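Problem: given the chain below (904 residues), write out its structure.
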Amino acid sequence: MASDQLAGLISGLIQNRRILQLHTPASAPDAVKRLVPLQVAGQEAVCGGFQYRLQCLSNDDQLPLKKLQGLPLAFAIGDDSGEARPVCGIVSRAECVLSDGALTVYELVLRDALSLLAQRSTWRVFRDASVLDISNQILSEHIQQNQVLGAAFQFSLSGASKSYPPRSFTLQAGESDADFLTRLWRQEGIAWHFDHKLDDGRPLHRLCLIDSTEAYPDNPAGTVRFHRADATEQRDTVVAWQAWREQAPGEARRSSFDYKSVNTTEAQAPDMLEQGDAGSRLSETLTDYQYDAARFGAGSGHYEQQARSRMLAHEYLSKGFSGESVVRQFRSGTVFNLSQHAEIDSHPESERAFILTRLELYARNGMRLDAKLARSLFRGWPQAMRGADGHQSNEAPVYYNQFDCVRRSIPVVPHYDPASVPQVGMLSAIVVGAEGSEIDVDEMGRIAVRFLFARPEEHAKGAGASGTPRDSARIRVLQPWADAGFGTAFWPRVGSEILVGFIQGHPDKPIALGGLYDGTHDTPRFNGFGSLPANAALYGMRTKELKAQRHNQLRFDDTNAQISTQILSEHAATQLNQGWLGTPRSEGKSSPRGEGFELATDAAGALRAAKGMLVTAFERLNANGKQLDRSETLSMMEECLGLFKALGKYSAEHQGQAADNEPQAKLHTDLQQWEQGSNTEPGGAGGRQPVIALTAPAGLVFNTPKAAVTHAGENIDQVALKNMQLASGERTVVNAGKGISMFSQSEDFKLIAHQGKWLAQAQHNDVQVDAAKNIKLSASGGKVQVIASEEIMLVTSDGTFIKLGGGKITMGCNDAATIHAATHHWTSPATESAELPKFDKGDVGRVPQLINPLTKKGIPGMRYEITRSDGSILKGVTDAEGRAAKIDHDAFEGMKVRFFDAEN
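Solution.
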């Protein structure tokens, strides 16, 4: 084509009113402003955005494509009212498809801003924000931070009038902003569309969120006739109309487990469609059931709303209308009325209004083109060879569209596919907590984390990338065992790295799976020694004291031939070591310390067993037998009890003191019946007495450098099958409250004071010394002195006697009395002094007293009952010092004292 012909063509397009016009912003280059639109094709949809392909002509083949890229542009289609409907977008693609030096053809792709946000993907956390809050934040950021979007794009949330509660945690999981936002809108049942305007010549398109049919504006075309498209028609018309239906499920059901109430929240929404007799019966078993992730909705009301939106989406997709028209004012997201259609006219007026949900259009300015140029320009444009009446043409202006619509009474609700939710997998995160805390959990043991993907610049308000509990909702921690007040409790420490999974893969439902070691969190150094891989045979758990450096640990050592376990607290070095005992293993090495078990502490220790305790060194290999297997102990006790009884009886029969066998016999019985009532003898009774038995086949050793005390409330019975031997470096003192009986059945009875005085007294009674044979008294280095306060009498079995006392000496016999002496002297009377010992009686009376063990003071006003050894009972009330009445007696006695509440 010659240059003058091209100039005339372009000039003609500019000077004549054509249906397709191009609008550019004031900042556009002049070469762009000189572009002349030839044809456009594309589509727009509610819940879908728009995309148009625009072909423009130019006589400038030097226009760089980058001058077009990202430029806000608008094309306007003149309508039957003389107005022009603009479609405003952003150039996302520019292509030079034809250039011969004289004519250059550019093709531009115009898209909405939301679809362009598909090119921006990120990982991002939103805290305590509703779907509208999140939408506002993301879209506002783009408008404020992006000059092109700020100049060409707006949004409105006013059409979303329902309640959308804040979400405690929402994660944009590597999705584009477009995919993320539309996923949230679909989930909540919010529709969206775009409207367009030229704002003082500036192309501007606006995203509108809508959740009510009343929010859709009326289309400027108003009421449109159903009529063929003739050149003689003054108004644009709908030229084709079809109704369609598609089978829908009978109900939508959803359920989600609420771990706080431990109930499954359920929501259901039956269909409200008239699907015909067969269709309704068919839908009865067709249920759209979705099991959502835990705590999916913000309460039952919100969850019901989501379920209803799901059913409304099915209803929206199950019934509609399609058509073709030449109505140039049509745009998606607007409402028109249809008239002069026989079937539609039969319905009430409210059912003749329709929401345009999708529009696919083609428009072309008319021009005379030679066949070769036409083929070049229309290649790849199948719509270009078709006129509204179906005849081929390239000279007249062309416009036609195809559309989908639903009655205005049908809610336009986008379909939500759970499969569109990204399956996140597992992510690393850092545990965060309140300032200064090492462990930060709530009442359910939930923690807060900062995900490593969180960038501060995308979390301007801090939540998500602050390193505080604001960075996430509280998330549960996976435990090996979790139950009602029992189970395991392992809480990750603040600052540690953990692995986070997501329930059902949903990005909004994180759960802590376990901890990970990293460059600043080393593997445990049990006992503070060694490292991996040398200590790889050590397994277990090691904790750390809060705000300090001490530890507790449970350690297993699987080293070949040196296996052991250890429970240790570094407080007072308290530990239980079992198995092969050795020094703490360092770099795989340990020095032996013994075998078996060791319970040790640098502080105090206590063993308590309410049903008794057996401490024995008798062997039971591999812990065979019962827990209280004590056959050897019982056998030895039977031997000792037998000897004890026999010697005690023999002593009693030979004027010795009879032994009290009952306490020892009862203890023996208790040991015999020890297991009765336990799981080894569940049917027995009287067992499980709180006794302690110590036994060893090779002997027992008790020693201390200080005092040793043995106390018994009843008897202390000591029996030796051979010798019982007592030795003391200084004194041996034996005191008895009643009596002492010592009996030797055979061999000698020896009482020897090697260097000190030997003293035998009966302070308030007689001394009797009997011998079956002789009695010998001797004083190797002194005198034998016999003193009596009244008389001394020596008598033999035949009656011969000598009696001294009363100032006289009397002798008698029944035979001769013989006295041998060298001489004899009978002088005047004389006596010697005789000093007798004096014996006092001490007070052995006792006063029972009730003492508070905490205050060490007496407890007044308590009733008491004292049972004495003779069976008599004394009763009374304690005085101000907690004392009972004094018990007077001239000898020690055992008493049983019981105290009672004054009111009982």
